[in-house]
Amino acid sequence: MENAPIAKAEGLRERKRRETLRRIAEIGLRMFVERGYEATTLEAVAAAAGISARTFFHYFKTKDEILQFWQGGGGFLEAVRAALRRGSTRPRALRAVRDGLLEVLPRFTTENSVVADRIWYSTESLRAQKQAFFIELEQTVFAALCERWPRKDRRPGLRMTAMLAVGAFRLAIEARRHDRRTRPLTEYVRESFAVLEAQL
Amino acid sequence: MENAPIAKAEGLRERKRRETLRRIAEIGLRMFVERGYEATTLEAVAAAAGISARTFFHYFKTKDEILQFWQGGGGFLEAVRAALRRGSTRPRALRAVRDGLLEVLPRFTTENSVVADRIWYSTESLRAQKQAFFIELEQTVFAALCERWPRKDRRPGLRMTAMLAVGAFRLAIEARRHDRRTRPLTEYVRESFAVLEAQL
DNA sequence: TTGCAAATATGCAGTCGCTGCAATAATATT
DNA sequence: AATATTATTGCAGCGACTGCATATTTGCAA
Question: What is the per-residue pLDDT for A122?
Answer without folding.
Answer: 95
